[in-house]
């Protein structure tokens, strides 16, 4: 048996040491944040049509509290990367991500954003997770609006289960991931 299999589970993690009030506040903030997502639609290609479809009346993303697109990264907390990202655009996407305030979440919309899709060539970024952390990947070329809503619900579950703090100024998981990304770049 490997040593890692018999190692005791650490019980001193900070999350587990949270008090009752702190847990209730975190739950309330998580509930509020998951139903008030402000989207920055970084749309570059054909998937943009599907974003329009999911935002309009038939599929109505407003039912999930994510209806307001914001075209300033400082006013958005969900970055939706919609379409093919080529290498010339990669630094711009990274800057947009860095300009967003915490807490923030990233959705890769369609296979081009998730993995480069069928553009397996020298000009296209083979997945946005090479430069920024991604929370939810939505497959499809393009994904149907139902898939997008499904991805949104996955993200909402993730947000609800995260730890939220009032006025937290420490290093966030996204900060750590972003540091690792810049180190490995
Ligand atoms: S995933 Fe398909 S539909 Fe979406 S941007 Fe790429 S090629 Fe276009």
From TrEMBL:
<feature type="binding site">
    <location>
        <position position="47"/>
    </location>
    <ligand>
        <name>[4Fe-4S] cluster</name>
    </ligand>
</feature>
<protein>
    <recommendedName>
        <fullName>NADH-quinone oxidoreductase subunit B</fullName>
        <ecNumber>7.1.1.-</ecNumber>
    </recommendedName>
</protein>
<dbReference type="GO" id="GO:0005506">
    <property type="term" value="F:iron ion binding"/>
</dbReference>
<dbReference type="GO" id="GO:0048038">
    <property type="term" value="F:quinone binding"/>
</dbReference>
<keyword id="KW-1003">Cell membrane</keyword>
<dbReference type="InterPro" id="IPR006138">
    <property type="entry name" value="NADH_UQ_OxRdtase_20Kd_su"/>
</dbReference>
<dbReference type="GO" id="GO:0015990">
    <property type="term" value="P:electron transport coupled proton transport"/>
</dbReference>
<feature type="domain" description="NADH:ubiquinone oxidoreductase-like 20kDa subunit">
    <location>
        <begin position="46"/>
        <end position="153"/>
    </location>
</feature>
<dbReference type="GO" id="GO:0051539">
    <property type="term" value="F:4 iron, 4 sulfur cluster binding"/>
</dbReference>
<dbReference type="GO" id="GO:0045271">
    <property type="term" value="C:respiratory chain complex I"/>
</dbReference>
<comment type="similarity">
    <text>Belongs to the complex I 20 kDa subunit family.</text>
</comment>
<keyword id="KW-0472">Membrane</keyword>
<comment type="subunit">
    <text>NDH-1 is composed of 14 different subunits. Subunits NuoB, C, D, E, F, and G constitute the peripheral sector of the complex.</text>
</comment>
<feature type="binding site">
    <location>
        <position position="112"/>
    </location>
    <ligand>
        <name>[4Fe-4S] cluster</name>
    </ligand>
</feature>
<comment type="function">
    <text>NDH-1 shuttles electrons from NADH, via FMN and iron-sulfur (Fe-S) centers, to quinones in the respiratory chain. Couples the redox reaction to proton translocation (for every two electrons transferred, four hydrogen ions are translocated across the cytoplasmic membrane), and thus conserves the redox energy in a proton gradient.</text>
</comment>
<dbReference type="Pfam" id="PF01058">
    <property type="entry name" value="Oxidored_q6"/>
</dbReference>
<keyword id="KW-0408">Iron</keyword>
<keyword id="KW-0813">Transport</keyword>
<dbReference type="GO" id="GO:0050136">
    <property type="term" value="F:NADH dehydrogenase (quinone) (non-electrogenic) activity"/>
</dbReference>
<feature type="binding site">
    <location>
        <position position="46"/>
    </location>
    <ligand>
        <name>[4Fe-4S] cluster</name>
    </ligand>
</feature>
<keyword id="KW-0479">Metal-binding</keyword>
<keyword id="KW-0411">Iron-sulfur</keyword>
<dbReference type="GO" id="GO:0009060">
    <property type="term" value="P:aerobic respiration"/>
</dbReference>
<dbReference type="InterPro" id="IPR006137">
    <property type="entry name" value="NADH_UbQ_OxRdtase-like_20kDa"/>
</dbReference>
<keyword id="KW-0874">Quinone</keyword>
<keyword id="KW-1278">Translocase</keyword>
<keyword id="KW-0997">Cell inner membrane</keyword>
<comment type="function">
    <text>NDH-1 shuttles electrons from NADH, via FMN and iron-sulfur (Fe-S) centers, to quinones in the respiratory chain. The immediate electron acceptor for the enzyme in this species is believed to be ubiquinone. Couples the redox reaction to proton translocation (for every two electrons transferred, four hydrogen ions are translocated across the cytoplasmic membrane), and thus conserves the redox energy in a proton gradient.</text>
</comment>
<keyword id="KW-0830">Ubiquinone</keyword>
<keyword id="KW-0004">4Fe-4S</keyword>
<feature type="binding site">
    <location>
        <position position="141"/>
    </location>
    <ligand>
        <name>[4Fe-4S] cluster</name>
    </ligand>
</feature>
<dbReference type="GO" id="GO:0005886">
    <property type="term" value="C:plasma membrane"/>
</dbReference>
<keyword id="KW-0520">NAD</keyword>
<feature type="region of interest" description="Disordered">
    <location>
        <begin position="165"/>
        <end position="185"/>
    </location>
</feature>
<dbReference type="GO" id="GO:0008137">
    <property type="term" value="F:NADH dehydrogenase (ubiquinone) activity"/>
</dbReference>
């Amino acid at each position: 048996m490997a040593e890692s299999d018999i190692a005791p589970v650490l019980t001193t993690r900070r999350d587990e040491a949270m008090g009752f009030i702190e847990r209730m506040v975190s739950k309330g903030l998580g509930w509020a944040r998951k139903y008030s997502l402000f989207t920055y639609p970084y749309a570059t290609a054909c998937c943009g049509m599907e974003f329009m479809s999911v935002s309009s009346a038939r599929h109505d993303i407003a039912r999930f509290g994510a209806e307001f697109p914001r075209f300033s990264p400082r006013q958005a907390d969900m970055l939706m990367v919609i379409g093919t990202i080529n290498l010339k655009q990669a630094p711009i996407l990274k800057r947009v991500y860095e300009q967003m305030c915490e807490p923030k979440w990233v959705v890769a919309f369609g296979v081009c954003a998730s993995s480069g899709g069928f553009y397996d060539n020298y000009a296209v970024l083979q997945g946005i997770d090479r430069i920024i952390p991604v929370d939810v990947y939505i497959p499809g070329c393009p994904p149907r609006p139902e898939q997008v809503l499904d991805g949104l619900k996955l993200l909402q579950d993730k947000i609800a289960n995260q730890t939220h703090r009032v006025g937290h100024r420490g290093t966030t998981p996204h900060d750590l991931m972003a540091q690792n990304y810049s180190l490995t770049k």
